[in-house]
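Protein 1 of 2
SEQ + STRUCT:
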Amino acid sequence: MLREGLKMSPDEGQEELEEVQAELKKKDEEFQRTKLLNGPGDVETGTSITVPQKKWLHFISPIFVQALTLTFLAEWGDRSQLTTIVLAAREDPYGVAVGGTVGHCLCTGLAVIGGRMIAQKISVRTVTIIGGIVFLAFAFSALFISPDSVF
């Protein structure tokens, strides 16, 4: 991670942010055009032109399914998952499971709530370098601190 971070340009993530914003704008415009073309339906009868949905979609939002799938696929086999596996093998697996879940929830929550602001203030390069330093710190602590030692 340190090597990747040091090789990155300072504005590496800015291009991706701009791509996502352009794609969202395009989808919003497409949605508005579709809405205008289909019309509001018959106001007097209260009917509208809708696509029939399956019953399970009433309980599960499509954005929920998309976010779940995206997060699962993005996290599968990455450094944080591998590090969690090593930590769980070395320490209490229940504590690692709870700590990993809470940590991921906090990180994802921070990304959802302040993602745009953070992306404009902190570069991907900085986050990658900090992540590399944290991984090295945990590696050294695993080398020199016994799992049985109590602080």
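Protein 2 of 2
SEQ + STRUCT:
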Amino acid sequence: MQVTSDTIKVPGARLYYEAVGRGPLLVIIPGGPQDAGVFADLAQRLADRYRVVAYDPRGNSRSTFDGAAQPQNMDIHGDDAAALIEAAGDGPAYVFGTSGGAQIGLNLAARYPHLVKRLIAHEPPTVMLLDDPVPVLATNDELQATYRRDGVEAAMGLFFAQNGLSEDMDGPPPDMTPEAMETFARVSGNFEYWLVDGVVSLSSYEPDLAALRADPARIVVALGVGSVDQPIHAMGTALASRLGVQPVAFPGDHMGFETEPDAFAAAMVRSLAD
């Protein structure tokens, strides 16, 4: 289906978004340094059921600050997501957030419950909900120290290794489409901003559990079957336990929405069913 793009003005920034499909509004929030482009395949597989709107969080790729880059703030990220839903005019919305984007989704659901019909929180880095967050916080400190000492490439290599992920830091795979190569280049360009501030802000955020427990049926905690035994799986499990809900198994690992888009889209449709 045809993809359209536009921007909306929010305080201090302008947000870029892409929309495709028809039906109930489904807002997709990327994680960490990612942008809307990483969901291109997934969005097409959902477009026959939903109007899918994916955006670049402020500071990433095409969502630019009015002036100098600002530190990441979870309430501001939540405000941005709310503004996007209100601008779309089709709320309340279904929301899917992955990784740091799941943290933004949890902030949105807690502070703007009237705008969220259901949230799929895919592998949120809810470090502070672990019984003992100290070891994970130590890996964040190691990541920051590696960035300051050895630079972006070394730090990102360490991050992927810490989380059981693989990534070719020498460039995109040779079989990538031109569109995917553009996305790869944009996301790579966001790594430094994410390392400087995002990784700590997004992972140290503690969701408002009391607000979320007011209607826990709205929250789907999605955990990849390929992430079992990884730190991110333990974090999502801790969130589900605190909310009193059962986590839902999703295809793939932390990047399942890219590597297994057909199965991932089917899992989303099941989880969003009323």
